[in-house]
Every structure is written in C-alpha cells, then in structure tokens.
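To whoever is on call:

I kicked off a structure prediction for a single chain this morning and the downstream step that reads the tokens threw a length-mismatch warning. I double-checked the sequence; it's 101 residues and nothing unusual in it as far as I can see. Pasting both halves so you can look.
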Amino acid sequence: MKTSLTSDSMKPIEDRLQKANAEFAHRYPGESGRRQPVHTVYGGAHLFKSDTAPRMGGMARQALAEYGADFSVFSRALNLPGADSLPCLSSEIEKLTNRLE
C-alpha cells in the first residue's frame, strides 16, 4: 500500500512528539506508587446523603475492630515494614504494648 508520508518525512514530527512527551512526563510524573488510598468509593451524586461520611466511618471502625484487633495484626494485614518481627501471641503483644506505653 502506498502511503503519502515517508519515514523520512515523519522523523521530525516523531522527534518533536518524543520531546514533548518526555517534558510532559517530567512535569506530570503521575502517582508515585508509594501510598494509595485504602479504598475508593464509587457512586453518583444521587447516592450521596448527608450521613454518608459518618456511616462509612462507622463501617471502617467496625472493620478495624474486627480485622485489626491490635497493632501486630494490623501491621501484618498491611504488610508494613517490620511487621514480621512483631509478636503474634496475645501475651507477647500485651507485654510489648505495656512497655511502649
């Protein structure tokens, strides 16, 4: 198939686009990947009510109480650095808690 643009004629355009894309990526690098939200809520404005935030906060506290009983469990669940060196037994967790307090 015959094209009207040759590789040679496209080279200056590609060079300019490459430079512009590199400048854009430098100026707007995007998310670092280091920290991300715990969760994101999707829903239209028609679903939002005056008590949405307090209700979701209550559900978050309930989930934390149920699945993050103490700092050791919570740290392991989030795979935080050093979590593997924390005690697992409740008696050891209590000793460490008392020492830290």
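Update from on-call: the warning came from a stale cache, not from the record. Cleared it. Sanity check on the structure: The longest helix spans residues 7-27.
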